[in-house]
Amino acid sequence: MAAAAAAAVGGQQPSQPELPAPGLALDKAATAAHLKAALSRPDNRAGAEELQALLERVLSAERPLAAAAGGEDAAAAGGGGGPGAAEEEALEWCKCLLAGGGGYDEFCAAVRAYDPAALCGLVWTANFVAYRCRTCGISPCMSLCAECFHQGDHTGHDFNMFRSQAGGACDCGDSNVMRESGFCKRHQIKSSSNIPCVPKDLLMMSEFVLPRFIFCLIQYLREGYNEPAADGPSEKDLNKVLQLLEPQISFLEDLTKMGGAMRSVLTQVLTNQQNYKDLTSGLGENACVKKSHEKYLIALKSSGLTYPEDKLVYGVQEPSAGTSSLAVQGFVGATGTLGQVDSSDEDDQDGSQGLGKRKRVKLSSGTKDQSIMDVLKHKSFLEELLFWTIKYEFPQKMVTFLLNMLPDQEYKVAFTKTFVQHYAFIMKTLKKSHESDTMSNRIVHISVQLFSNEELARQVTEECQLLDIMVTVLLYMMESCLIKSELQDEENSLHVVVNCGEALLKNNTYWPLVSDFINILSHQSVAKRFLEDHGLLVTWMNFVSFFQGMNLNKRELNEHVEFESQTYYAAFAAELEACAQPMWGLLSHCKVRETQEYTRNVVRYCLEALQDWFDAINFVDEPAPNQVTFHLPLHRYYAMFLSKAVKCQELDLDSVLPDQEMLMKLMIHPLQIQASLAEIHSNMWVRNGLQIKGQAMTYVQSHFCNSMIDPDIYLLQVCASRLDPDYFISSVFERFKVVDLLTMASQHQNTVLDAEHERSMLEGALTFLVILLSLRLHLGMSDDEILRAEMVAQLCMNDRTHSSLLDLIPENPNPKSGIIPGSYSFESVLSAVADFKAPVFEPGGSMQQGMYTPKAEVWDQEFDPVMVILRTVYRRDVQSAMDRYTAFLKQSGKFPGNPWPPYKKRTSLHPSYKGLMRLLHCKTLHIVLFTLLYKILMDHQNLSEHVLCMVLYLIELGLENSAEEESDEEASVGGPERCHDSWFPGSNLVSNMRHFINYVRVRVPETAPEVKRDSPASTSSDNLGSLQSSRRPKVLQRENSGTAQVFSLVAERRKKFQEIINRSSSEANQVVRPKTSSKWSAPGSAPQLTTAILEIKESILSLLIKLHHKLSGKQNSYYPPWLDDIEILIQPEIPKYSHGDGITAVERILLKAASQSRMNKRIIEEICRKVTPPVPPKKVTAAEKKTLDKEERRQKARERQQKLLAEFASRQKSFMETAMDVDSPENDIPMEITTAEPQVSEAVYDCVICGQSGPSSEDRPTGLVVLLQASSVLGQCRDNVEPKKLPISEEEQIYPWDTCAAVHDVRLSLLQRYFKDSSCLLAVSIGWEGGVYVQTCGHTLHIDCHKSYMESLRNDQVLQGFSVDKGEFTCPLCRQFANSVLPCYPGSNVENNPWQRPSNKSIQDLIKEVEELQGRPGAFPVSISSETNLSKEMESVMKDIKNTTQKKYRDYSKTPGSPDNDFLFMYSVARTNLELELIHRGGNLCSGGASTAGKRSCLNQLFHVLALHMRLYSIDSEYNPWRKLTQLEEMNPQLGYEEQQPEVPILYHDVTSLLLIQILMMPQPLRKDHFTCIVKVLFTLLYTQALAALSVKCSEEDRSAWKHAGALKKSTCDAEKSYEVLLSFVISELFKGKLYHEEGTQECAMVNPISWSPESMEKCLQDFCLPFLRITSLLQHHLFGEDLPGCQEEEEFSVLASCLGLLPTFYQTEHPFISASCLDWPVPAFDIITQWCFEIKSFTERHAEQGKALLIQESKWKLPHLLQLPENYNTIFQYYHRKTCSVCTKVPKDPAVCLVCGTFVCLKGLCCKQQSYCECVLHSQNCGAGTGIFLLINASVIIIIRGHRFCLWGSVYLDAHGEEDRDLRRGKPLYICKERYKVLEQQWISHTFDHINKRWGPHYNGL
Fold first, then answer.
1. What are phi and psi of 835, to 5 degrees?
2. Residue 354 and residue 496: Cα distance in Å, rounded?
3. Are 844 and 1892 in contact (CB under 8 A)?
4. Please, are residues 442 and 167 in contact by the beta-carbon 8 Å criterion?
């Protein structure tokens, strides 16, 4: 094909016959070079035509897509090799042509050289790790790539790392988005100056080739898009097309990466309108182009878009009137609600919509909006490319290409305008999309880059009507899911709201558009335009009103709702995102006086919208009962702008408030929400399901509260401050449905509320009033004071971590508001109010985080219960705060009892809101307070301490805020005359407190006790005005005509109060029940009410004093304090009164009342003088008595239950203390395995299942609960103290050559190379890797009980964290994890063993006895022949032990399955357990018996099991090493090498292994003197080995010196106990073999030239022998129960030696201790040494090197450690999160690193799976024999794999506030927490992961 193209070109231009023969790559290059030359000529027309023709052919779009679209064979359409080949060919041509004949790579490099890299602009997709620095960012969306971040200087800044959700681009170098100080080194230089100009010919070809290339791409896109069927485009087809285009788009993307020079060429191509017109118009004769143009038009039309003919010159700037004559597609048509209507008239739509949406939606009238929605005209490649990008639902590649171009400024502007032009189309596509989530992310990925830039946003706003477009598009989007509102008047409501059940809201599909809107409103210049444009404000309020009253809840009264709708999530999210956040954005620009006008605009249109809303829902004056909506965004807009106006703009509040009637309406719905909250908490909405509680919680939750409850309360405060207080207070009690309760009578009927809800509703009403009157959030507090109050409230509820505080403090949702989390003010306030508690580590493994806890003075002065109540999501948090407050008072000695919430002084009110305090000084409230105090004093039903507390709080608030000091004279003059006509004379609380009320007339049921009394004659003149007198509290009867007047003012606009106004005040004595009440009480149901008159004769003051007596339980308990100290009245703020209970509160109130008025003081003194008679006992009716008894009985039952529970808890606690101490062996109360009673010889065991005690017998053996686990901890010991560091760069690597396991492996394989296999397997121990460790909790059980216990577990279907089939269970008593039972050997106790008494036999006799005993096979007290239960169990536990570890850790022999293997494995198990215990004791025995690891140890039982099995294998007597140790044999020099492989020489044997073999071969129980004998014999061998090793280590000269020095002393008496003599002898013996010969000079260099002094030699010998002594002492301790003596480190050797009986008892300790004095040779020393050395001789003659290596045994292992981690987590993260896996060479999705050996693995990576095991599980088996500790790089947490289970352990990296950051969600810098790491290491070494971590789950090999 290409050949033909070139030939054709050649044919056209015969004038150039030199054109080479086409076909090969060379020819492409030549053609390109030739064309470039042609084009460079001044007259380049011919060249241009030639190039065009070539491109026509090469880039023809017909061919490949026939294959793509129809899937037919590409060959049929002409063009060989399938669809891919032709495209590749085309791309090759393009690359050649661009390079103009040169190499493409050189061309790229050349272009890059001209890149003026001022911006980074790196584009990333989702999941990329980027950084955000708030200190450097101007826009909140600013982000940096890791490279730019690390190359800039951000020390001390507020930055975090984050995983990109939607993708983004690096802003480094863009000073519009970030401050220049934060730029990295690469982008700091403004580089335009030093970049040379681009040579013209470099990019010349690009300018010709690229337009065709892009056009070709567009043709592909047109071709490939088939209009979808009804169900939306089949994703498959679209993806197919996109896959085909992948190489083309990638090619474009690569071009953009060449830098600025190439980008500007691309910009020219993409935005050039002429090019576009010429190529795409479809007017030419080329059929292919025509067809393609038609497809494009069809696509436009099917999208509901029109393509204006060219004669209507239509630009974005001037919407032409003509557009409306085209098919103006109504929005609703497009969404398919009317079927696929292409055009419809607007009037039509009105009809079809039925609901009359259009009537209220004022937007569809203008053609402007229609054109925004429906007309698209593409004038350049860029515009059409974006169109197809949207059509194909934003393919990632296209998005990345479009974004990669952004650093080009010209492109950025053009692209932004194009994007805005397509905005409506984007919204339509988004709504139809199936993948709206992905698409949303991609849209935001683009828009955030465009709209974060203020300059750009402003330009587009001015030139392209960005704001109009956005608001219109949002409005249209929401219009598609409106339903009729059912609020208030269901039938006639005209209001429409969004339907929260629609996908649009449920899936947050609107999110990208709203987020763009919020983004542009954050720019001041844009927001100003919005606030100035009245039309826009009207439209916006219209939009907000769609959310007003959505998600209406109706209270279910009969049965429980069937289906709990979860739409409330959508509703709250929508209000927050679509209404509140734009509101906060606008508010942030209304901060100064100059912006008053904006506020007036918003408030004006807000009120208009509210008025429309009230009209639409037909609201008159009463809210419909039993329904509530939490969504009132219009109210909240209004409230927040009012608040701003007063706080920041110094506006006069009254100038923006509406009239009284509107205020009354405004207050109704927010008040309804507050009452509903109380109802929900009183369980009155319980039939609506849990979701209603969810709504109540969300409403006050920290992310919502300042956009919801705070504005609501503020609006109510504003209304209260302007409305008549009596009206307001009575409205509150009516809304809360507790009017009927407020009567003096002891019984009443409540027509609207069940009795059980009364108490909590009354509490709700009073609490609401307290909050309303004492909250100052919007009434005068400064931002810092608010922040402080919020913080104190949160900290008082609970100690908090720093991040949860940031989350809980409601920050202004708009990021530009100034109070940013982590800002300076946040940190300074935090340090002022709280102390930091560093994270502590409980041994139980529960990791604590760093917490902040309130300072003492905060509890003392700032604890504010009101704020706490307002901010609690859960009621229990209020209790928690009170408990903590109580604890503080007890601890600081301020108050011992149960305190009441403290009264806190408030910030002063802003003058505009002074009216609020009138609520406290209105008669209605005083009547309520008086009534409640009286009822509490008389013990009426349904009142609680909480009610009293709130009543007193309100009284105190009133006293604090009393208006003017009244003059006592004036009050006393008219007192008696005036008070007959009303409850209270005036409205001031201070004077009303002392006003006595004598009689009250009440309405009571006829059955009430009050009725029986005769009424006194004088009632008629007395006041009757009880609140009860009327159904509605607004009608409180007063004779006082003044009051009546006030009421008529309120009532004039309320028809329902006509009747009240009509009555004259003289008739007012008759009780009025307005007609409306009839709908509440069902006739006949209630008993008749009659009027009774109560004698009261109390005032508020006298009630308070009596209350004091009642609370204190003493008569006359109140004594006015000022009688002793008159000063107290002058400054009543006394600390004594600030904390306390009700008594303190009463005293405080009386003191304040007295200090405010002399009259009050006098009256209080008078009342106190009268000795108060006791409160008359109430007449109790039988019914009441019954309820009282019931209550009392309940109370007693409750107390009994509490007592029982407490007792149970303490029992449990004491058990836990003894049993569960897995983690801290130090403070153990040891659980003895056996009971040590000296006279009993048999051990007695308790079975924890059946509870019986008894000895373990052969028929019914008892066993220890044990956990068997394979362990490689020992193998991780190294010989250096410093732990290895985790590698954090390519250079650092960890090699495991120096680990204990590796060294032992090498030694074994070396022995196996030269010596006989069976003998090798006795010369060493295995189990350094994969050794079996046995641990127990110390509890015992009968083995048959255990079996039935396991059966029951197997049948128990509850999900356990362990697998019963694998034999796992938890100890029935202490719940510790276990997997086997170790049978206890019947017989005597360890402690009182008759074998223990020392005998005086000589060592020679003992040696013989030992030999004989070992020779007797199976001389067991238990006859092995008879299969007893015990022996069966011992076999089965042995099987368990073998199966615990993998085969590779048990089989070391060359002949698989040989018995020597088992033999080796068994004594190695003993070795492993002893070595591990030594490590748990810290590597030495200096601490002696202090460590109680022994108490929990099962070694004694384990030894019995092992010994039983080892005796089954008898060692051939001639091979028994015991012989070689204790007998001289005649040396046969010929023995040398006849047999193929000799035995292992005894000097190469591992002495500790020999010890275990000797002991386990003896019949059990062992005699102490036999044990000592074995130890003595072995010590002689050990000492000889030490001498040999020493001799090999030192230099030639030292050796000869020692040889001679020792030889001189050989004849002395104790030569056998002098190390010098022995050393010299060993040297001379070994000299005979060629051991020392072949070391030349290089050896000396290797061994450090120490000058050996006798001390250093002694130390060297002791160090060699110590490990053996330690293990032996431990063994003796376990076998014979002897205590280990404690000692200093330097004397450990001598202490252990004497403890083991090696030191003769007469040994003097004066002169320095010499290890050789412990020697006790069984045969002459020199003879036996000669014999031992002779064995080596023949070997070393041939293999001197190996012989030497085998002699030097490394015996000094340091304790095992995990890898050392770097201080800062970022160093690990940066290296590992991009590191490729060594197996699959990909970057793993979840990388992890092993903390034991540093291996890098893929967690869950399927790529690295081997035989169904994922890599982490596999590694845990290879590295830790089933235990793996991995650090998950992307989550910073540690995961533990133990066998088939895993658990998340927690993190060892914490941030500056001591918190984990799991999954790196917060992205703050993390630092190593050394204590935590130590805990982790400790758990690893002590094998306690299983016990300490509780949350295990199976991993199914998938990690």
1. -105, 145
2. 12
3. yes
4. yes
Distances (CA, A) of 1374 to 266, 497, 1219: 74, 60, 6
What is the structure's pLDDT at 1542?
A: 83
1845 forms beta bridges with 1842, 1898
With beta carbons less than 8 A apart as the criterion, state whether 395 and 242 touch.
yes
> Are the CB atoms for 1635 and 1748 separated by under 8 Å?
yes
SS3 state of residue 635 = helix
Assess contact for 1763 and 1276: CB atoms under 8 A.
no
DSSP letter at 754?
Answer: -
Residue owning tokens 């009320």: 997
Region 984-1012: mean pLDDT is 77
Question: 1688 is written with which tokens?
Answer: 């200093």
DSSP state of 899: P
User: What average pLDDT does the segment 740-765 reach?
Assistant: 86
Contacts of 1032 (CB under 8 A, 6+ apart): 730, 734, 739, 1074, 1076, 1077
Q: Contact 725/924 with Cβ under 8 angstroms?
A: yes
How far apart are the C-alpha atoms of 1658 and 588, rounded to whole Å? Answer: 82
Overall average pLDDT of the 336-360 stretch = 34
Are 813 and 518 in contact, with CB atoms under 8 Å apart? no
Residues 6+ apart with CB under 8 A from 1039: 981, 982, 1023, 1025, 1065, 1068, 1069
Question: In sequence order, which residues have a C-beta less than 8 Å from that of residue 716 and are 6 or more positions away?
Answer: 667, 670, 671, 674, 772
Instruction: Return the bridge partners of 1383, or none.
Output: 1263
User: 10 Å Cβ neighbour count for 754?
Assistant: 11
Residue 1106 corresponds to which amino acid? Answer: K
Residues 6 or more apart in contact with residue 530 via CB below 8 angstroms: 467, 521, 536, 537, 540, 586
Rounded Cα distance, 1587 and 1581, in Å: 10
What count of other Cβ atoms lies within 10 Å of the Cβ of residue 1197? 10
From residue 1622, alpha-carbon distances to 142, 1582, 1609 in Å are: 79, 13, 10
- Convert the pLDDT of each residue in 613-631 to its tens digit: 999 998 887 888 899 999 9
Please compute the mean of the pLDDT values over residues 1667-1685 and round it to a whole number: 87
Model pTM greater than 0.85?
no
Instruction: Give φ, ψ of 58 to 5 degrees.
Output: -65, -40
Neighbouring-strand partners of residue 1832 = 1792
877 within 8 A of 906, measured Cβ to Cβ = no
End-to-end C-alpha distance for the chain, whole angstroms: 52
Token pair listed for 1632: 């005979």
Among residues 849, 819, 821, 825, the alpha carbon closest in space to that of 837 is found at 849
C-beta separation of 1089 from 1003 below 8 A: yes
Distance CA(1315)–CA(1337), nearest Å, equals 43
Tally of helices (H runs) and strands (E runs) in the chain? 74, 28
The pair of structure tokens assigned to 526 is: 């844009």
